[in-house]
């Protein structure tokens, strides 16, 4: 079956083969690329002396044929040169979260935590207690903070390429927006009873994160540089992976 699939891909779907090679080999010209191997978990494509192995998003089994998994792989990258579409996917991904991961620096020690957030315009606002260590690390180093929105493991096709959006940010404390931020939090978390109590506590503060340089990764070979919430284009890098001969 795999030999037939290889022949079929090279003869009838050369455009798909060349697109996959261009995307995953990080080359501009993929003409002449051919499939040389297929197994239940990956496809191997070669152009001249350059060979790459691309993992499928779904394993071939009794429920998923070679055709199914190759179409799935192709559909995941076919629009990757359309920044507007990728940007829409990134915004939809971010808006699917109610909390965000935060990394900050406290006396040269990295601190990682999370906080509930709301997006207002193009900025991220969080509510953090001054009791928390990351409150003090952010206050100490407001320009050495990063955020990450990370796909849940149970929803990922592979744990090695979870969808994620990460940003360098600049932090500003702005308690004058406390009422507005809590109003927005209550709108998107209508069943969260703790909000009404936390709103009255003096140790909870509002921090605004202005997004700067970032990267959106939608899977293997699908990395995009960003500035704020704007996709700049595919990440400019050569293929960083090496394969056994």
Automatic annotation (TrEMBL):
Residues 5-68 form the DUF2470 domain. GO terms for cellular component: cytosol. It comes from the Bacteria. GO terms for molecular function: coenzyme F420 binding; oxidoreductase activity, acting on the CH-CH group of donors. Residues 88-217 form the Pyridoxamine 5'-phosphate oxidase N-terminal domain. Pfam families: DUF2470, PNPOx_N. The keyword tRNA processing does not apply. The keyword Oxidoreductase applies. Keywords: Oxidoreductase. SUPFAM superfamilies: FMN-binding split barrel. NCBIfam families: heme_ox_HugZ (TIGR04109). This is HugZ family heme oxygenase. It comes from Campylobacter blaseri. The gene is hugZ.
């Amino acid at each position: 079956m795999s030999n037939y699939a290889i022949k079929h891909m090279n003869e009838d779907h050369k455009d798909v083969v060349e697109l996959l090679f261009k995307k995953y080999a990080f080359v501009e010209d993929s003409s002449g690329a051919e499939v040389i191997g297929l197994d239940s978990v990956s496809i191997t494509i070669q152009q001249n002396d350059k060979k790459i192995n691309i993992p499928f998003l779904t394993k071939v089994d009794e429920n998923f044929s070679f055709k199914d998994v190759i179409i799935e792989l192709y559909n995941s990258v076919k629009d990757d040169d359309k920044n507007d579409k990728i940007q829409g996917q990134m915004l939809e991904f971010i808006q699917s979260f109610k909390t965000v991961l935060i990394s900050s620096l406290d006396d040269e020690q990295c601190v990682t935590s999370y906080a509930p957030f709301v997006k207002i315009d193009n900025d991220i606002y969080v509510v953090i207690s001054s009791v928390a260590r990351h409150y003090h690390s952010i206050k100490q180093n407001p320009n050495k903070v990063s955020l990450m929105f990370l796909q849940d493991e149970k929803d990922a096709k592979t744990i090695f390429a979870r969808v994620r959006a990460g940003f360098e940010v600049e932090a500003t404390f702005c308690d004058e927006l406390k009422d507005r931020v809590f109003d927005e939090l209550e709108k998107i978390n209508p069943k969260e009873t703790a909000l009404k109590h936390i709103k009255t506590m003096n140790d909870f503060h509002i921090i605004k994160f202005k997004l700067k340089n970032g990267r959106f990764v939608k899977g293997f070979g699908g990395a995009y540089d960003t500035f704020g919430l704007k996709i700049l284009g595919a990440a400019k890098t050569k293929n960083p992976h090496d394969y056994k001969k």
